[in-house]
Protein backbone atom coordinates (compact mmCIF):
# COMPACT_ATOMS: atom_id res chain seq x y z
CA UNK A 1 0.00 0.00 0.00
CA UNK A 2 1.35 3.42 -0.99
CA UNK A 3 1.79 5.98 1.73
CA UNK A 4 0.08 9.31 1.16
CA UNK A 5 2.51 12.15 0.58
CA UNK A 6 2.47 14.83 3.25
CA UNK A 7 3.13 18.37 2.11
CA UNK A 8 5.25 20.36 4.53
CA UNK A 9 4.46 23.84 3.23
CA UNK A 10 1.32 25.61 2.09
CA UNK A 11 2.98 26.28 -1.26
CA UNK A 12 3.71 22.58 -1.83
CA UNK A 13 0.17 21.61 -0.88
CA UNK A 14 -1.36 24.35 -3.05
CA UNK A 15 0.86 23.38 -6.00
CA UNK A 16 -0.21 19.74 -5.72
CA UNK A 17 -3.87 20.80 -5.53
CA UNK A 18 -3.34 22.98 -8.61
CA UNK A 19 -2.17 19.84 -10.43
CA UNK A 20 -5.54 18.28 -9.44
CA UNK A 21 -3.85 15.72 -7.19
CA UNK A 22 -6.80 14.17 -5.31
CA UNK A 23 -4.60 13.15 -2.36
CA UNK A 24 -3.40 16.72 -1.94
CA UNK A 25 -6.96 18.02 -2.22
CA UNK A 26 -8.04 15.55 0.46
CA UNK A 27 -5.15 16.61 2.69
CA UNK A 28 -6.05 20.28 2.27
CA UNK A 29 -9.69 19.49 3.06
CA UNK A 30 -8.81 17.40 6.12
CA UNK A 31 -6.33 19.98 7.39
CA UNK A 32 -8.72 22.94 7.28
CA UNK A 33 -12.32 21.65 7.29
CA UNK A 34 -12.92 22.02 11.04
CA UNK A 35 -11.55 25.54 11.26
CA UNK A 36 -13.45 26.67 8.18
CA UNK A 37 -16.68 25.00 9.28
CA UNK A 38 -16.63 26.99 12.53
CA UNK A 39 -15.87 30.18 10.61
CA UNK A 40 -18.85 29.64 8.30
CA UNK A 41 -21.15 28.50 11.10
CA UNK A 42 -20.82 31.88 12.84
CA UNK A 43 -22.62 33.48 9.89
CA UNK A 44 -25.60 31.16 9.61
CA UNK A 45 -25.85 29.07 12.82
CA UNK A 46 -27.40 26.19 10.90
CA UNK A 47 -25.46 22.96 10.35
CA UNK A 48 -27.00 22.17 6.97
CA UNK A 49 -26.40 25.65 5.61
CA UNK A 50 -22.86 25.77 7.02
CA UNK A 51 -22.06 22.48 5.29
CA UNK A 52 -23.48 23.77 1.99
CA UNK A 53 -21.50 26.99 2.24
CA UNK A 54 -18.37 25.04 3.09
CA UNK A 55 -18.75 22.81 0.04
CA UNK A 56 -19.24 25.83 -2.21
CA UNK A 57 -16.19 27.51 -0.64
CA UNK A 58 -13.98 24.45 -1.13
CA UNK A 59 -15.13 24.20 -4.75
CA UNK A 60 -14.18 27.85 -5.26
CA UNK A 61 -10.85 27.30 -3.53
CA UNK A 62 -9.93 24.29 -5.66
CA UNK A 63 -10.94 26.16 -8.81
CA UNK A 64 -8.79 29.16 -7.86
CA UNK A 65 -5.89 27.42 -6.09
CA UNK A 66 -3.46 28.47 -8.83
CA UNK A 67 -3.94 32.07 -7.68
CA UNK A 68 -2.55 31.31 -4.21
CA UNK A 69 1.07 32.39 -4.06
CA UNK A 70 1.65 32.70 -0.32
CA UNK A 71 2.98 36.24 -0.56
CA UNK A 72 -0.14 37.88 0.86
CA UNK A 73 -0.71 35.39 3.67
CA UNK A 74 -1.01 31.76 4.59
CA UNK A 75 -3.13 29.16 2.86
CA UNK A 76 -5.33 29.08 5.95
CA UNK A 77 -5.96 32.84 5.67
CA UNK A 78 -6.66 32.57 1.94
CA UNK A 79 -9.16 29.73 2.50
CA UNK A 80 -10.79 31.57 5.39
CA UNK A 81 -11.34 34.63 3.21
CA UNK A 82 -13.01 32.48 0.54
CA UNK A 83 -15.28 30.97 3.21
CA UNK A 84 -16.22 34.34 4.68
CA UNK A 85 -16.97 35.79 1.23
CA UNK A 86 -19.04 32.74 0.32
CA UNK A 87 -20.99 32.95 3.59
CA UNK A 88 -21.62 36.66 3.01
CA UNK A 89 -22.85 35.94 -0.53
CA UNK A 90 -25.34 33.41 0.85
CA UNK A 91 -26.46 35.79 3.61
CA UNK A 92 -26.96 38.58 1.07
CA UNK A 93 -29.10 36.34 -1.15
CA UNK A 94 -31.24 35.25 1.79
CA UNK A 95 -31.83 38.64 3.28
CA UNK A 96 -32.50 42.04 1.79
CA UNK A 97 -30.24 44.61 3.40
CA UNK A 98 -31.83 47.77 4.74
CA UNK A 99 -31.28 50.98 2.75
CA UNK A 100 -28.42 53.26 3.65
CA UNK A 101 -28.59 54.79 7.10
CA UNK A 102 -28.13 58.47 7.94
CA UNK A 103 -24.92 59.80 9.44
CA UNK A 104 -24.05 58.34 12.82
CA UNK A 105 -24.71 60.27 15.97
CA UNK A 106 -21.38 60.68 17.80
CA UNK A 107 -22.50 58.42 20.67
CA UNK A 108 -22.88 55.35 18.42
CA UNK A 109 -19.23 55.22 17.48
CA UNK A 110 -17.97 55.12 21.06
CA UNK A 111 -19.11 52.05 22.93
CA UNK A 112 -17.41 50.28 25.78
CA UNK A 113 -16.08 46.77 25.18
CA UNK A 114 -18.48 43.86 25.57
CA UNK A 115 -18.19 42.11 28.95
CA UNK A 116 -17.65 38.57 27.62
CA UNK A 117 -15.18 37.62 30.37
CA UNK A 118 -17.68 35.78 32.56
CA UNK A 119 -19.43 33.84 29.78
CA UNK A 120 -18.60 30.48 28.25
CA UNK A 121 -18.18 29.90 24.52
CA UNK A 122 -21.63 28.33 24.16
CA UNK A 123 -23.34 31.26 25.84
CA UNK A 124 -21.50 33.75 23.63
CA UNK A 125 -22.38 31.81 20.47
CA UNK A 126 -26.03 31.64 21.53
CA UNK A 127 -26.12 35.40 22.01
CA UNK A 128 -24.51 36.00 18.61
CA UNK A 129 -26.91 33.51 16.98
CA UNK A 130 -29.87 35.56 18.23
CA UNK A 131 -28.73 38.68 16.38
CA UNK A 132 -30.51 39.60 13.14
CA UNK A 133 -28.64 38.32 10.08
CA UNK A 134 -27.19 41.70 9.08
CA UNK A 135 -25.96 42.51 12.57
CA UNK A 136 -24.51 39.03 13.04
CA UNK A 137 -22.62 39.20 9.74
CA UNK A 138 -21.18 42.64 10.48
CA UNK A 139 -20.29 41.71 14.07
CA UNK A 140 -18.42 38.63 12.81
CA UNK A 141 -16.66 40.51 10.03
CA UNK A 142 -15.59 43.41 12.23
CA UNK A 143 -14.98 41.92 15.66
CA UNK A 144 -13.89 38.39 14.78
CA UNK A 145 -12.43 38.55 11.27
CA UNK A 146 -10.94 42.03 11.70
CA UNK A 147 -12.27 43.74 8.57
CA UNK A 148 -12.65 47.53 8.55
CA UNK A 149 -16.04 49.19 8.15
CA UNK A 150 -15.08 50.26 4.63
CA UNK A 151 -14.12 46.69 3.65
CA UNK A 152 -17.36 45.31 5.11
CA UNK A 153 -19.40 47.99 3.35
CA UNK A 154 -17.82 46.95 0.05
CA UNK A 155 -18.48 43.26 0.69
CA UNK A 156 -22.11 43.83 1.64
CA UNK A 157 -22.95 46.62 -0.79
CA UNK A 158 -23.93 49.03 1.98
CA UNK A 159 -22.31 52.27 3.08
CA UNK A 160 -19.75 52.40 5.89
CA UNK A 161 -22.10 54.39 8.15
CA UNK A 162 -24.73 51.66 7.83
CA UNK A 163 -22.07 49.18 8.81
CA UNK A 164 -21.26 51.19 11.93
CA UNK A 165 -24.94 51.43 12.86
CA UNK A 166 -25.47 47.67 12.44
CA UNK A 167 -22.39 46.98 14.58
CA UNK A 168 -23.55 49.39 17.26
CA UNK A 169 -27.00 47.75 17.32
CA UNK A 170 -25.42 44.29 17.49
CA UNK A 171 -23.27 45.30 20.45
CA UNK A 172 -26.26 46.87 22.19
CA UNK A 173 -28.27 43.64 21.80
CA UNK A 174 -25.32 41.57 22.97
CA UNK A 175 -24.94 43.77 26.07
CA UNK A 176 -28.65 43.33 26.81
CA UNK A 177 -28.28 39.58 26.41
CA UNK A 178 -25.24 39.53 28.71
CA UNK A 179 -27.12 41.52 31.35
CA UNK A 180 -30.06 39.12 31.09
CA UNK A 181 -27.73 36.14 31.53
CA UNK A 182 -25.99 37.82 34.46
CA UNK A 183 -29.31 38.48 36.19
CA UNK A 184 -30.29 34.82 35.74
CA UNK A 185 -26.94 33.61 37.06
CA UNK A 186 -27.04 35.84 40.15
CA UNK A 187 -30.45 34.62 41.27
Notes on the protein architecture:
The longest helix is centred in the last third of the chain and has 26 residues, at 160-185. The protein is mostly helical. It contains eight helices and no strands. It is elongated. Mean pLDDT is 84; it is low at 98-111. Helix 1 crosses helix 2 and helix 2 crosses helix 3 (47-64).
Provide keyphrases for this structure:
single chain; 187 residues; 8 helices; elongated
Strand content: under 5%
Q: Averaged pLDDT, please?
A: 84
Number of helices, counting only DSSP H or I runs of 4 residues or more: 8
**Structural class designation:** mainly alpha
The sequence of SSEs as H and E is HHHHHHHH
Gyration radius (Cα, Å) is 19 Å
**Weakly predicted, low-confidence segments:** 98-111
Q: How many strand segments?
A: 0
Intertermini distance? 62 Å
Biggest sheet descriptor: none
> How would you describe the shape?
elongated
In short:
The chain has helices at 10-18, 22-44, 47-64, 75-94, 121-129, 133-144, 149-156, 160-185.
